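Possible race condition, two jobs.
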Amino acid sequence: MIGAPVMNLVYSRIDSAHLARASGALNLLNTVGGTVGTAVVAVILNSRLDARGTDVPSAYADTFWWVLAFGLLATTAAARLPGTPPAAHPPQGKR
């Protein structure tokens, strides 16, 4: 969800000589971030399953709300990313 804006922001501010390293670093961060995020959701689900006992649908519903909250947090963070200034267009002449 926020991957494309972050990638655009990072790649637009890096010299072309460093793009290869930046690409590898961002790929690593995406992989680690996805793994950590999945682990956090699994821990939340496990704790909700323990708390709810035999009420499995409610445990999944509780976990869904956590995932929704994380998504809203990520969307808010992405909305606050600085934008790139629009490219200047030369004035159009009369035809």
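Job #2 (started ~2 s after job #1):
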Amino acid sequence: MRLQATVVAVACVVLAACTGKAVRTGVAHEMILPEGAERTQVEDKQQFVMAVPYRQPLPAYPAGVAAVAAQLPVCVEFVVGEDGAAHSPRLLEGVPDCVAASQPGITPFVDAALAAVAQWQFFGAGMCTWQREEAECSDGRAHVTPLAIRLSYRFRFSDGTPGQPVAVEAL
């Protein structure tokens, strides 16, 4: 009986310890449309098909960097090629709520975001065009022309454990 009580007590202590929430690194991300971004006109009998991500690893909070006190917004721009790969990622500046490259201590966060985006893969974008009135993109009678498109994302690094992979929260 005494052994059973001890086991129950130990189990309660272990379970109680598991209910505490550990502080974790967080990075949320959202797609943004910068002012003045290029737009394509869609004609009658056309439909734009947006690129859809199927591999989108998130950046890890940089190791060896102190936790940030507030959310740190890093904006990245890149091209989704006709092959669906993310090409030429770069820091996007001059957009509201995005850090500037000149901000002290920003480099490890920018590097983490750029490295993650370089690994992203998409089902590529395209322009679907059909000739007949009753046709549409989903019925197989249309022609889809692959398109390279430029996308921009804002990553918000927040307080957490350096070096750990992050969870995403859609904004």
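The first helix runs from residue 2 to 19.
Logs attached separately.
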